[in-house]
Request: fold
Amino acid sequence: MSNKIEDWRKRERDYPIVTGKALYTNDINLPNMLYCTILGSNYAHARIKSINVNKALEIPGVINIITGAELMDKINPLPTNSDYSKLGWHWRIPKVYPLAIDKVRFVGEPIAAIVATNSYIAEDALEMIDVEYEPLPVVVNPEKAMEKDAPLLYEEWGDNIQAYIKFIHGDIEKSFSKADKVLRVQLKEQRYSGFPIEPRCCVADYDERRNELRVWLPNQTPYQSRRYIASVLNMPESHVKVIVPNVGGGFGNRIVPYKEVIPCILSLILKKPIKWFESRRENFLSQTHQRDLKWDVEAAFKNDGRILSIRGRFIMDYGVEGTNRDAGSPAIVPAVRSIPSAYKLEAIQIDAYGVVTNKAPYGAYRGYGKDKGNRLIERVLNIAAREFNLSPEEIRFKNFIQPNEFPYRQITGYLYDSGNYPKVLKRALQLLNIEYWREQQRLLRERNRYIGIGLAFMVEPAGASIPYSIFTGIESAKVSLFTDGSIHVYSNTIDIGQHSKVAIVSVVAENLGVKPEDIKVIMGDSDIVGLGPWSSRGVIYGISAVVKATKALKLKILKVAAKILNENFENLYIKDGVIYSKSNSEKQISIRDLANRVYFFPGPQMTLTQDMLEKGETTLEAIASWFSPTTIKELSSVYTTFCCGADAAVIEVDLETGKVKVLKYVAVHDVGKIIDLASVEAQVQGGIAQGIGGVLFEELIYNEDGQLLTTTFTDYLMPTAIDIPEIEIDHIETPSPVTETGAKGMGEGPIIIPPEVIISAVEDALAPFKVRISETPLKPERIWRLLKCVT
Amino acid sequence: MSKKVSITVKVNGEVFKADVESRMLLIDFLRDVLGLTGTKKGCDEGKCGACTILFNGSAVKSCLMFAVQADGSEIITIEGLSKEGKLHPLQEEFMKNIAIQCGYCTAGMIMVAYNLLKLYPKINEDEIRKGISGNLCRCTGYVNIVKAILSAAHRCEK
Reply:
């Protein structure tokens, strides 16, 4: 990365942040703005008998209060974000309104919304609304929810199964008949989510004169969010504009603005700007959750440690639903289809259930579903390694897809673009110095200290294009050259913390031959067609579209320059914003002078070629869109690039307390061609920290009544600086043949690996006690109980 | 409805007088009354540290104080850290070490680090990790934040 790109990053991206000038949604204050709070249900499952708002309305400063029943005729229900019933699958879509109408199904479900002159008064009013509930039986355990006489969340369904898919890939019976050994593996992962430090926030401003609603919100996909909001409000999309200022973290949690539509409705009703900024408690209660799943499978092996196939059952707990308030339900598909990961399997067969319970809705969180299959196979392999007396690396080397087998069609349908899995794992073993630590382990055990070494691998399917969902594969970019030589790039690959702006500037500067300081990036606007960052698709779709548009603009510029300089088109190149002839150094023109001539003297002076004039190509701008070539032919391909990674760690378990301390952590990733090393490494570090948080600390705990017990950062333990070790990183680069730059999507990969690294390390540390782990998080209490054989 | 109280506060070197509701939190006073929105709100209950400011020379979480408690005090926020356009070494090192991802925790991190460097000029990595453990970051894994603070400490020491 050049110094000039570094300067750009500092000046354009980071300077406003370190000086406190960067604009986040809550920093936006409009004239005559009012404040909104949203009352959530106290019950996990109940009928609403009545809502009395009279006392609340008497509070001076309270402007208006609305309830679901009042709104019903004025708005549409929340649109669905995925409908796989069109694929013939069991896929149910509930009718959900932004505010509950007659029944609540989780604690925190929005019931009423208050508008007041300031946020304090709006909060006072929350206390004064009287809701009469008729409590209903609650179910928070998905297996209980599947029982015949379980309380029903949606009576009309007759059961609590929102999704059921029988995945059959390969001949499972035949494969199992060849097995020397069958292992049973159970793995339960707790409920947790991203919880960005910036809570949800929305400023909605309806302008009656123009019949236009402007909405500012931290969001990953304003183009889709506009569709969502317009649909609820029954407004034409062209009359709704969603603008995304700085975003305080995304992690998949900011895809669908289900609660943010409430301030939008209020702004439409009151014709005033409305701000909603949620409390952290509200965030824990009603932001969408993730993980919360259980695998129960059998894995067939040959005696030499080769894996043949996996079959079994998978249950995901969707909470109240996963199709309308977010797009969590579809995660069940990559959860299963990513099982084969880096390995050659013959078959998998999984009965997958998405079950509804009285908990918060299910959404996207970094990893989405890919984490789930990857973690299962890694758990299976680590258990098998122990059974067959192999090291964890040996069993992987035996089963890896080999470098000469790409492109590789995985049995679940994915088309792997490229990779070198053995090389990546070997490098991780070196980086950790695994033999040294194995020796240390022996020595320390003699002194009653229990350290363990863990490792795991992953393949990240990235850049999704999923039919019948909001996750389609569209993306566009526009690159324009202005008369002063400055360049505007329009792309909705929003910078939610992953430095996508820097990657964009980097590829435009390189492909066009201009100085980074002349480039400006415009993003986060629903008028730009493009879906934004999720599914690690930024460098796949977003950057590919930008590169295509940049090359198209360059072609236009060179065509004009060829005419002006009376030179062959192929004989020209652009460097630092100046077009030169390769053979005659006297022949040159800056892009600024060129742009000036094109815009002010296009015709009679014949700056443009005859051909360009006839075609009406008189502007120096180019629009390009990009689509994944791997997903065109096969419906099941879905993903575009497949980066990989191997992590290894050394941990120590304190036998007295059960506390796990991570002593050393190394990560080797192959993300294809690296566009910006610093941001790739930052992604890896942050993803690993989230993965460690997920396996050791974070847990959303519901009691039997459906009350969430973890609604502050004191109860929900997000890792702090003392919990995360120094992380050593290295890279292998195997370029992707399918993207414009050779880069692969990699944002989610880093969170996928750490849980199995830590689980296997803890089992390794406690091998003398034969501790077996099948459930996370590995809080000290759980480990202590495992050690004492107490449940 | 609570009574209004007159307060005088020196913020980033400038004296402000204002009538505030007695229940108004200091963070809301800074953000909504003075318009200093660089201080961020992440939890409103003292758990995330995004709203950390310097209050009479000590790092405090401004969501845990009422504005009226700040009467007569001296406050520095992220906006007041650079002097005459020159950035503080912490601000420079956060940029240089890619310690900023989404940027929402950054102001609080820099303010708490500022206090740490003032109290412990020879601070080491472990002490930095302990010192910032009241501030949450969801993006970085803290790796680059710790590096940035360590580099700034070395520079400040010289």
Notes: Chain A has a mean pLDDT of 96. Residues 290-467+632-788 of chain A form a domain with the Aldehyde Oxidoreductase; domain 4 fold (CATH 3.30.365.10).
